[in-house]
Amino acid sequence: MxxxxxxFKELPVAAESNDELTECxxxxxxxxxxxxxxxxDGRAITLPVVVAxxxxxxxxxxxxxxLAQSMIDGSGFRVIELFPGKAILxxxxxxxxxxxxxxxxxxxxxxxxxxxxxxxxxxxxxALKRMATGRAGNYVYRMPVDQAFTTHAGRYxxxxxxxxxxxDISFGDKRVExxxxxxxxxxxxxxAKAGGNTVVKQQxxxxxxxxxxxxxxxxxxSTGSGLTFSLGGAIPGIGETHPLAKELRSLxxxxxxxxxxxxxxxxxxxEGPETVAIGQAFK
Length: 283
Prior knowledge:
Strand order of the largest sheet: 6-9-10-11-15-16-18
Structural class: mainly beta
Largest sheet: 7 strands, mixed, barrel
CATH superfamily: Acetoacetate decarboxylase-like
CATH architecture: Beta Barrel
Strand content: over 45%
Number of domains: 1
CATH topology: Acetoacetate decarboxylase-like
Distance between the termini: 33 Å
CATH class: Mainly Beta
């Protein structure tokens, strides 16, 4: 998937059926069958979708706000500036092990943003508080996964920009590593420390996406244990040739992250979305 920009061009999803490889567009194999009830590629899914166990890793970077905003132009969202002229870029890996949507790996490129109608927070403390309390939505710019079913489900139910890619995650006792390859090209690789024992109380935050000419807002709740937080961290690997890697390079990567975190065990729950026309305010 070598397209860039806020409007994500969905390609058909390849999957094996009866020993044959077939390709289907998401809207051809998904339907809404009632409030909070969906049929995704032949399977019934009822909201909320529950993740009983997963592991995750996040690297957070300070990047030029004007360049970050240019990446998401067309979304109707505005990047939050932690400092004047500086936005936040989040690179994420998640290993879903026990999940209503299956066992799969996921990566993501995200930006904390303001939606239409939201007031700009005061620099640093105001922005930090809004993000720390879950009152700032994270715009999911890209969200590759390595399984077909969750690709369809993520697109159709929540509008996420999912497609199939190669994602490897290794969670050790002291270190976690992840690699995201697309069509044989490295997009990014990350590392973070592991081994912490901090327990995380329930948090609720919104994820934002663009699909079908609409803006989507979905709330998710999470708890966790085995949290490791570290200031700074290892410089990520960034590909040379993939268009997404080139975008990350235009933001100044590879460089040291502002901070990293990993979580050995996390449980999550995802609600149904709210959708509005791009540029309109959510409720």
